[in-house]
Amino acid sequence: MLESQWLAAAKQNSSYRAARDSDFIRLADITSFIRQRILLIMTCPFFGLLSSGFYVATTDSIFTARTQILIEPKIPELLQKQSSEINLSLDTSQIETQLAVLRSEKIAGMVIEELSLIDDPKFKPQTLSITERFERIAEMVGEAFGVKEGSQIQTSPPPSTVAGATETPDITVEALEFLRRRRAVETFSEGLRVQRVGVSYAIDITFNSLDPVLAAKVANATAGAFVREQVETRTASAQEGVDWLEKRIEEVRIQMNLATQMTQEFRAKHDYRVGRQLGATIVDGQVAPSGEEESAEPTGPTLEELEVTAETYRRMYESLLAGFTNSVNQQPFLIADARVITPATRPLAPSQPRKKLVLALGLLAGLMAGIGLAFARHTLDRTIRTPRQIRDELGLNCVGELPAARILGGFGQLDDVLRHPKSPFSLSLRSIRAAISLADVAHPLRCIGVTSVSPGDGKSTVASNLAALYAVSGVRTLVIDADIFHSALTNRLLYARASAGENLDNIKEQIRFVPGPQFDLLPSHVSAAHRLITPKHMEALIDELESYEAIIVDLPPFTSGVHVLAAASVLDGVLIVTEWGKTPFDLVAELSRILQVTKTNVIGVVMTKVRCLSTRQYRGRVTQAAS
C-alpha cells in the first residue's frame, strides 16, 4: 500500500529536470564518446583489416596487358587529288562503332580460334568459394611452418567438364562444343576492356588474365583481329564490286555487239528495215526472240540512231572495263583504317588485387562501421556513463567517479582506501568526502545514507571505505548495516554470527568494532530485529547514538522495494551509487524521484567501476599523487 502511494507521488513530481547547459555537441562530448567506445571503434577496423587481408591472401593475382590502336579517317581519292589540306574527322558515333566492333563476338571468335583458347587451361576462370579460400589459407600456414598436408586443394574443374557431367547423356558433341565456345566467349568478354583515349582517335585494348604472357598474347591478337577484320571486310566488299562489274560488262558487251551488228546490216542492205529490234532482251549472251511477228510495213530506226546507240554502248563498255581494271589493280593494296601504335608486352606486376588499396578500404570500412555501431549503441544506451548526463537528465550533482580498484576486475575491498592510500580509487573517495563536507556548511552532514539501484553497484564498498576515511581522520564513526536482504558488510567484516539465545534488545551492546577500518559496525541482524528500515525506529536510534560524530547507513537497494527506503527521510543526506555503464538511467531517475517525494536530501550520485574518467584535471592530479 505504502509502495503504491509513493510510486504515484513520484510520477506526479517527475516534472523536475535541470536546465541543460547547451544543446550543442562539445569537444569534451566527442572525446568522452571516443573514450567510452574505443574498444568497439578499434575492434571493427581490426576485423576489416583482417577480412581484407584474407581476401588479398586468397585471391589469385590478375595481370593486365595493354595495347593501343589508332583509327585514321579515310579521305576519298577525289578529295585527295583536289587539295592536300583537306582534313576529315571522325565523330563520336563512328568511334563508338569501332569500339562496338572490338567488343563483338566476331572479334572474340577470331582471337579464340587463333590462340586455341578453348583448350587452354590458363584461360579458364577460377572462382573460389569460401571453403576453398579457407583451405588455401590452411595450405599457406602449413607451408610457412613446413607442414605438408596430405590432401591438396582441388581446383575447380573446367567448365566444360562440369557441363558434361551435369548434362544428360543424350547431349550431343555439337552441343558440348557450343557450350564450350560460349563459355570461352563469355570469359573473353569479361577480361576484355576497350575504351577511347580522351577525345583522340586512339583506343586502348586491355585484357586481364591469370597468366601475364597469355594476357599479352590475347591483347595483341585482339588488335590484330580488328585490323584483319577491316581488311577482310573491305576485300569482300571489293570482290562483290568486281563480280558485279564482270556481270555488267558482259551484258553491255552483248548489247554493244548487237548494236554494231545492226548498224552494219543496215548499211549493207541500204534499207530502213532491220530484222532485229534494238533493245532486245539478252539471255545467256544470246538475243531472245521478241515473240512478235514482223510488220508488213517497213519500220525501224534510222542509220543515225543505230550509230548513236552503238557508240553509246561502246562508251559504256569502255567505262565499265576501265572501272573493272582499276578495281582489280587496287584490290591487292587494300589497307585498314586502324593500325597498332603500342603493342602489348608481358606485364611485370599484377594489376589486381590492389593490395594496398584493398587493405586501406578494409581499414576505412571497418572504422566507419565501428563508429556507426558505436554511435548506434551510444544512442540506444540508457545507462549512466557521464556526470553531464546525471546533471542534465536528473538535476543532481555527480560527486565522484570511482575507478575499478583492480585491473583484472572487481571494484575493490572494503578497506582499499587504507590498503592503497595513493591509488586512484582512494584519491577519488577522498574527493567524495570533501564534496560531502562542502554540501551543507551551515548544517554538517552527520548521518549519511548510501543506497543504489541494484545490489551489485558497489554501495557497500563505498560505505565501508567512506567510513574508514572518517575513522582514520579521528572522527568516531559508526556504520549501520541496514541492508537486511544482502548484508555484505556484516558477512565480510564480522565472522561471528548471532547466537540463538543472544539478547538483541540493547542495541549499543550489539555494536562491534572492526579492527582494520577502525570503525564500529551495527550488524544487519540487529537492524532487522529493531526494524531500522522504518523512519521512526531509525530516528530513535540516531538520537540514542549521540556519541558518534559520523554515522554511515548502508541502505537496501532500490530493487528490494520502495518501502525499505523510508528510513532515508530521517537522515541528513543520501548518496546514490550507480555502476558505470550498467545501471539503467530510468531506474536511477525513479529512485531520485522517490527520494525527493520523501523529502530526502540527495547529496549526489557516485559512479563506480568507471573505465573512462571524465575530468582531465582530475586524472592529472590522480597520476601526480600516485607517482
Automatic annotation (TrEMBL):
Q: What is its main location?
A: membrane
Q: How does it sit in the membrane?
A: Multi-pass membrane protein
Please indicate if the UniProt record lists Glycosyltransferase as a keyword. Answer: no
The membrane spanning regions, by residue number, are 38-57, 357-376
Superkingdom is Bacteria
Q: Which GO terms describe its molecular function?
A: ATP binding; protein tyrosine kinase activity
Where in or outside the cell is it found? Cell membrane
* Protein's recorded name: Mrp family chromosome partitioning ATPase
Q: What is the species of this protein?
A: Sinorhizobium americanum
